[in-house]
Amino acid sequence: MDLYTRLARPTLFRVPADTAHRLALAALRWPRLWEVLGSGPDHDPRLGLELHGLRLANPIGLAPGFDKDCDVLASLQHLGFGYLAPGAILRDVRPGNPLPRMGRLPAQGALLNCMGLPSKGREHSIRNLRRLERRRVPIFAEVHGVTPEEILENVAAIQPYAEALEVGLECPNTRDTDRTKQVATAIELVHVLARARQRPTFVKVPYFFRSEQRDRLPDLLDACIEAGLEGVVASAARRQQTDQLSIGYGQITGKPIFQDTLALVGELAAHAAGRLTIVAAGGVSTGRDAYAMLRAGASLVEILTAFVYRGWAAPALINRELLGVLQAEGVESVQALVERRDRASTGRGPFTPLPT
């Protein structure tokens, strides 16, 4: 049992999840400390891969939501991730939802959140990205906005300071009754985004495209392919009622959504047939889980809940476990697995509803 599991996690789990998050960020304000404690990215060549001109030491990234404002990237880059995705970065300072807006379900290995897009503002994040002079891993900045115009404005402002972008297409102020209009807007935004971007860009599949407007999901993928975007981010995070959060509900992440994310990745891969890079972002907590996502169609795998439950060693542990699975399965490398899988893609598969 490692130091985090034995000492740090029991201490952090005695305080509210929001407080624990603030304490973790405070501890990560000391890059020199984490240069010593961290493992650094695992440079075993079997884990490395090259995508869209970017070289990654391994396919495991830190998902958006932990370091929303690029405050502790200098420390996070020492922990063994192949890349980091800070954000969501927004133009203006936003308070987000009232506290509590984070919760835990330890028996399920899950987290709950209703963050409400809190942000210190785009300029704060840009200052931090500028200060990150020595980059050990690529930065995939997540950009969001409350309107399509703000999303595009943020893309233009942030992309000079990141190696790649993840872009949220879902505007949080849209009412459920406006979903049909927002679907059309999201598809149009894909084409405008493709013309504006100067970095590899991955769009996040909005919740409504895999729920009430699921029949339009192939249209979104086709728009991304036609526009020439590099890929999509797939997560099956779903809404759950809970009295742990201030607004009475939030998204559940972690182990309970693993199977749904795996199914979504497989369906996206079947339709894209190697024409889009898929990032799996939901439910992965072990190297075996990561391998399953890679086999299903993902090329990159993001974790966040596993980072909370397994601690600062999580990326190194998952990469080590992934190496063991590759060896056991007779697969020479992550790059070989991805390339062989994509060559074997033969066409589009049907979309079926995910279990609820």
Structural features, described:
- The protein has 356 residues and is of the alpha/beta class.
- It has a single domain, classed as TIM Barrel, CATH 3.20.20.70.
- It is built from 13 helices and 16 strands.
- The chain is globular, with a radius of gyration of 19 Å.
What is the CATH superfamily?
A: Aldolase class I
- Summing up helix and strand content along with how strands pair, one would put the structural category as alpha/beta
| Overall structural domain count | 1
Kindly report the spatial arrangement of strands forming the biggest sheet.
Answer: 4-3-16-15-12-11-10-9
What brief labels describe this structure?
356 residues, alpha/beta, TIM Barrel, 8-stranded parallel β-sheet, 4-stranded antiparallel β-sheet, 13 helices, globular, disordered C terminus
